[in-house]
Design brief:
Elements lengths: L1 H6 L4 E4 L5 E4 H15 L5 H13 L6 H26 L1 H7 L8 H13 L6 H18 L4 H16 L7 H15 L3 H16 L6 H21 L23 H18 L3 H14 L6 H17 L3 H5 L4 H10 L1
Antiparallel strand pairs: 1-2
Helix pairs in contact: 2-3, 3-4, 4-5, 4-6, 6-7, 7-8, 7-9, 8-9, 9-10, 10-11, 11-12, 12-13, 13-14, 14-16
């Protein structure tokens, strides 16, 4: 095919009544690209070159939508692979030089944005928008100065998909939006909402792909726990906001609720040295499930943590705080 194109650089055939031609070299490049895409799965750069040639020769090609998608996908994957490979083999580059940027992703971004803007009914549109969002996330993570700009761009993509609850990318977009809220640190409750919806979808069988059920479930548990912790900021002396009954949905399964609260309490106690707030979270779990056989053990743990909390208080604060022995009696009498 390449030899034919080289011999006939301006090839056109099957002229139509309109004066247009049914077949041209752009069509040949398209077919060559499709073959390369299927036959050479380990290196699709040649396919990318052919797709680029299609648009160069015929900017409004009949299969432009598919050309744009494949061009964007190949460019995105090769860019990710190249940068990640460099980072894994060059510590200096990983530390400072090689980053995900809009310029690095320019071909992929332009291709997917074209589909987003000009093909509203395309079956490839949601997938293209989802890929856009994930690229914007990578750019945000690597560029502190413009992080908020690209987090906003990412969320715009995910919100576009989430607006259609029947989209096959609905839950993927919801998962990523929760991640954006968590990383921006501006709306932890929204992140809790999104990840809770993921948990409920898994419970209802709406997310059933075995490749993502387990990682989505575990990540949602851990990210909700992190968000509960983050609600308090750096003030560890106040009551834990994550322990308020209104923060988590009442229809969470018992196993998911307990897993979330266990992680939050443990991190409050062990990682943040915030025993008082760890106690708040433990007591919230008892309120939620007052007949649980584990409650006596939880109460014992709160007594130990209260003693630790009281020990490090300054004398003035101690006078206004329940002493460990009194706390112990109060808890067991409850």
């Amino acid at each position: 095919a390449q030899r034919f194109i080289d011999a006939h650089p301006n090839y056109q055939d099957f002229e139509q009544p309109s004066g247009a031609f049914l077949i041209s070299n752009a069509d040949l490049y398209y077919n060559m690209a499709e073959l390369q895409y299927v036959l050479n799965v380990n290196d699709r750069r040649q396919a990318l070159n052919y797709y680029n040639k299609v648009l160069e020769l015929d900017p409004e090609h009949t299969f432009k939508e598919r050309v744009l998608y494949n061009r964007g996908f190949i460019s995105m994957v090769t860019t990710k692979d190249r940068i990640n490979s460099t980072r894994s083999t060059d510590n200096a580059a990983a530390a400072g030089g090689v980053k995900f940027t809009a310029q690095e992703f320019r071909v992929a971004i332009d291709s997917f944005e074209d589909i987003r803007s000009n093909y509203p009914l395309s079956p490839l549109r949601d997938e293209a928008i989802y890929h856009l969002g994930t690229m914007y996330l990578l750019i945000a993570a690597d560029n502190n100065a413009e992080a908020s700009v690209y987090y906003t761009k990412a969320n715009d993509c995910f919100n576009d998909i989430i607006a259609k609850t029947d989209s096959p990318y609905y839950y993927h977009a919801l998962y990523q939006r929760g991640y954006v809220s968590l990383n921006q640190g501006t709306d932890y409750r929204s992140s809790i909402h999104d990840y809770t919806e993921i948990l409920k979808a898994i419970e209802a069988g709406k997310i059933s792909d075995p490749n993502i059920v387990k990682p989505y479930h575990q990540a949602s548990i851990e990210n909700i726990a992190f968000a509960l912790i983050a609600l308090d900021g750096q003030d560890f002396s106040k009551d834990a906001l994550g322990a308020e009954d209104s923060v988590l949905r009442t229809d969470l399964s018992m196993d998911d609720y307990i897993a979330i609260m266990d992680i939050a309490a443990r991190r409050k106690s062990e990682d943040l040295n915030a025993p008082k707030q760890a106690i708040d979270i433990m007591l919230a779990k008892i309120r939620k499930y007052p007949l649980s056989i584990n409650n006596p053990t939880i109460l014992d743990s709160t007594v130990v943590l209260w003693n630790s909390y009281y020990t490090y208080l300054d004398p003035a604060t101690r006078q206004a705080t329940v002493a460990p022995l009194d706390y112990r009696y109060a808890r067991y009498l409850d």
